[in-house]
Amino acid sequence: MKAKSVDKFFNSILYIVSIFIILLLISLISYIIFNGRNFLRFEFLFGNPKIGEAGGGIGPQLFNSFYMLIISLLITVPLGVGAGIYLAQYAKNKRLLYIIRLCLETMSSLPSIVVGLFGLLVFVKATGWGFTLLSGSLAVAIINLPGLTRVSENAIISSASLVEEASLGLGATRWQTIKKVVLPSAMPQILTGVILASGRIFGEAAALLYTAGMSAPILNIHSNVTSKSFPLNLMRPAETLSVYIWQLNSEGMVPDAAQIANGAAAVLIIMVLVFNIFSRIIGNKIYKKYTGSK
């Protein structure tokens, strides 16, 4: 009876803590969206900033955030998942594994401002690129790579323990087993790592200040592909939404800087929520397709 009472007591504490965290998250999201509700308009979402004037929009910054998300994930996901596959399936030298994992843990503990300074020295200065979208994407990839690698490794190890021997026993090669059996089974956990990496990209500001810059040229799809105003040019400055929010709150370059910052923060929160929801839906569909579950 005493053990049951203790069990119920600690279960109740865990439920209370969980409910408190959920309420805190809902309150925070509601507060941010409520404060920025007046700016959730078409002109604000797709308009250009007006330096020194009231009003203006966040169109270039919004586009830069999504574009940097795509470019950074194109760099991070193949490297992170590939490294996870190597560590989980192919690396057998324990000393080498220890060194690689130590390096990953060290990289994951680096402050983003340090990665930003490294990006400034290497991607901005040493390469001669200057402040570019590509420099920012590479800096964010360095931040996200350790976490995605460890998530992928753990997901593959846990999934492989259930299905790998059965697949190999049926005559499949190691690569066929990894590609057709292990990776689909590990996809939900890997997708969680990708979602966490994406959230870091949306919210990152410190590293991007020193690599992508704090200017957002007015974008024009009809301009030359090498022009700084061409949207898909990787070698142009690219101020993201999080950097723009920081700039508004720190410099106050427009009369209604606080209101625009509140609206941009609301848009950023909604972007993260929508991306998380759609990523979960897509991940579940991929998992069901490969596993044959309904």
TrEMBL record:
Keyword Membrane: yes
Domain ABC transmembrane type-1: residue ranges: 62-279
UniProt superkingdom: Bacteria
Signal peptide segment: none
InterPro entries found in the cross-reference section: MetI-like, MetI-like_sf, Phosphate_PstA
Residue intervals passing through the bilayer: 12-34, 66-87, 99-123, 129-148, 190-210, 260-279
Keywords, ordered alphabetically: Cell membrane, Membrane, Transmembrane, Transmembrane helix, Transport
A biological process term (GO) from this entry: phosphate ion transmembrane transport
Listed PROSITE patterns: ABC_TM1 (PS50928)
Compartment(s): Cell membrane
GO CC terms: plasma membrane
Membrane-topology annotation of the record: Multi-pass membrane protein
SUPFAM superfamilies listed in its UniProt record: MetI-like
GO MF annotations, alphabetized: phosphate transmembrane transporter activity
Family per record: Belongs to the binding-protein-dependent transport system permease family. CysTW subfamily.
PANTHER family listed in its UniProt record: ABC TRANSPORTER PERMEASE PROTEIN YQGI-RELATED, PHOSPHATE TRANSPORT SYSTEM PERMEASE PROTEIN PSTA-RELATED
Record-given protein name: Phosphate transport system permease protein PstA
Taxonomic source organism: Clostridium acetireducens DSM 10703
